User: Fold this.
Amino acid sequence: MKQKTMKHAFLSFCFLLSGFLFAQKSVNGTVTDQEGVPLPGATIVVIETNDGATTDFDGNYSISAADGLTIEISFVGYESQQVVVGADAVYNVSLVEGNALDEIVVTALGIKRAEKTLTYASQTVKSEDLTQARDISFANSLNGRAAGVEIRKSASGAGGSTRIILRGNKSLSGDSQPLIVIDGVPIVNNRGSQPGTWGGIDSGDGLSQINPDDIESINILKGANASILYGSQGANGVILITTKSGEEGDAKVTINSGVTFESVIKLPELQYNYGASGGQNSWDATAGNYDSSFVDDFFQTGANYVNSVSISGGGKKTKAYFSYYNSTSTGIMENFKYQKNNVSFKQSTKFLNDKMTISSNILLTDEKTDNRAPAGYYLNPLTALYMHPRERDFSDFKNYETFNAGTNMMDQNFPFNYHFLSNPYWIMNKQPKEDKIRRAISSLNLSYEISDKLSFQARASYDFSNKSYEQQHAAGSNPTNTGSNGRWDYAQFTDELFYSDAIFTYNNDFSDDLTFNAVLGASLQKTTFGNGVNVSTGGDGVLFYANEFNFQNLPTNIQVQSTLSSRVEKQALFANFVFGYKDAIFLDVAGRNDYASTLALTGNESYFYPSYGISAIISELVTLPEVISFAKVRVSAASVGNEVPFNKINPANSVTAAGGVNRNTQKPFTDLKPEMIETTEFGLDLRLLNNRIGIDLAVYDIKSTDQYLQLSAPAGSGYTTYFVNAGEITNNGIELSLRGNIIEKDNLSWTTIVNITQNKNEIVSIHPDIANLSTGSGEGFGSRMVAGGSIGDFYVSAFDRDAQGRIIVDATGQPQKVNDTGADVNFAGNAEPKVSVGWSNNFTFGDKFSAGFIVNGKFGGKVFSKTEMMLNGSGTSLRSGQARDNGGVSINGVDLNGNAVSSVPAAVWYSNNGIGDRNGISEPYVYDRTNIRLTQLSLAYNIDTASLGIPVEAATLSLIGNNLLYSAEAPFDPELAMSTNRNSQGIDNFNLPSTRTIGMNLRLTF
Assistant:
């Protein structure tokens, strides 16, 4: 140490002498990696004087040096670079990875940190991984690419919503969805309406409106430890999206143009040999020869067109990025069309000797969906398609309307008057649905480098959406759902989010061994969701004039309602301190205090929650075997409050259609507290064989308490309901990521990542007065939460069996239900998988060819098919036909007198009093969720543009495919969700069938 001090003194003296010859000046620039990503915390040293500085979070530095002196730029895991100062004052440096032992990742609030300093688990997905196979919904491309992330895709087709859960469900009343953040600030990801057992349509979500080609990377903060700076809204984790920015240099233009063709993978197994003899159900006992192609022919080959262009460039002071994106999908059902247009513009400009940077960003979306596919029984074309009587010619119903001279209107061409059956072509053409969303997300960011150690940032963003949903039901539609003059369902509303924050960042190296980083800030957020109008004439509502769908045609008994889903203001103070010792041990302490309007009048509107973590890079502290390149252990703990719903403290009254007032009957909840989530996490990060193999292990334990629960108020209290904080949920699990550079040669490379997740959820307690909480039910299926169970448990009606396990039947052969009831009282399983595995691979062959694929596996869990139950009841399922071929259904049964029964007539077994139709025994329709699939496949060829003499810098032609094949026991795709909210998980009820897409994409860079 003494020698080092003497050396510094000598160099300083020499520099003082050189000052007579050399004049000092300010040298500045930006330090990035090879991909242009800023490197915060990089070290800049003037070798001759030993003066030093570090880069800020945007990779910027400033240091004093004279002409002829040498500055050295270094960063852990990257090769150092030296620059001799000349006449220029700006020196931008791009560092090359050496034996990179860590990366720069984006964390909460958009703060960039070295991965080695993190005390919690996070996982980053790069842009090229998201867009590799050009999935029309980029959120689905996350599937299998990160451990601890469960994703279920809506069965409704392009533009549908996505269910994302990080580390299990944590709330008895909430949805457990993560917060979505773009460039450090939250955005709105509200999900629209969702289908249920009896019908409905997915209305999409906010995430589906993002342009995937604008995304630079996605970092997933899985636990409260990582997302503490976002407060209660980040309690379920955070999906951090970083968008592309302009790059210094000549303008670079990138064009992507692709098309994929979509086709059905699997349909229900149906029979075409037995008709209905003029009736509704195909229960003839005599086989015939009927058309077996009409179901296949009903579905078309859909097309997905994706085209985008981006322009990036700029100088040393100003950089800009512009993009336009268009996607169009026709889907597999006639009359469906999805269109989305995105425009984005992002710029940044430096002022005041590059100390101040002002950047802005605007994202515009125009999304329109026509006739998104429904699910459930009612108003679903698939119900009548699959159950069509076999002896009738289905093509007769393509002419879906006939003229009624008596009413002077067109009637539905359909022979049955049954409550959930309608002509499929009538539904698609005469009951059209249109969804429109126009959205703008804008942000402004000002940052100022006060000194080499202290910087300030202020930013504001505004997310605004105008949404309209309309369905027009023509007169003549199914009378169960529609009045005689038709029906009109219309909603128009806006969602708004205003966010602003101010952040001070301080970085200082107190000595060669001790470093300190601090973040102090405050934020303000205001949201107003669902502010608009809604009207529905309903099944019994009668419009004045047929097929006139407007407000003037509404009868006086139909109320046009003003809607407001939520209006919330939240203020916060937050801080984060990171202490580093010898660049090997890091202590991370964070805290946030929220002030929430939803808790006004309770005395609990201000609440604080902390986070603590420590990590140690063992490989920097002790000598490890040569095979271990890097080893880090980490442990962290956090407590965070979960969001509290709007208007629950003392709900407002409402006005009726007749002008009266519906008085609030809920007892004021003035002692309400936020739900609390406490989490601990242990982690290990190992890199072996000169970083060719990586192992990242996380073990976590999460406890959620003070759940927000509703109970029935005692008689005579003057109220009907009241609320309590009670209940406890736990989630504990393991996440394992294995990364390998298996082959690293000039002409061949192979990199692979395996992500493995196991999560166990338990409802420890609810409340003594609550037996269970329903999360969706209907006719033989019920999903509910029970103390001792897990979120996602579902129940079915079951066979009554004797002591030997034989099914008990009556004299006619009808199977008996447990307790002779149709209630869903028998536990069937849980809709969540026990283990999830994602295996992604990328190959390069020379400099021309590359390939990649993902295989996903879900192991364990159960799902339920209401579709199979209904098809059995109608006699159109393959098994009902095979049973007639075989002369009956073979069973291991016993009659009421104890006599063995080995066969039951098919029509009896599959009837509504057996195991078919709506009220049969539902036990046989529970299936294992386990499935393995080839999720993505891409083959790319880099065209040699130089030899072709074309004015293109680079060109890549790719063959791409998504969801190409899968293997599962269930008769439907168990990874497609009828509903993406928490209700009725694991059920198929005439869902749109699973599809595969195959196509190509051309990428050009100028």
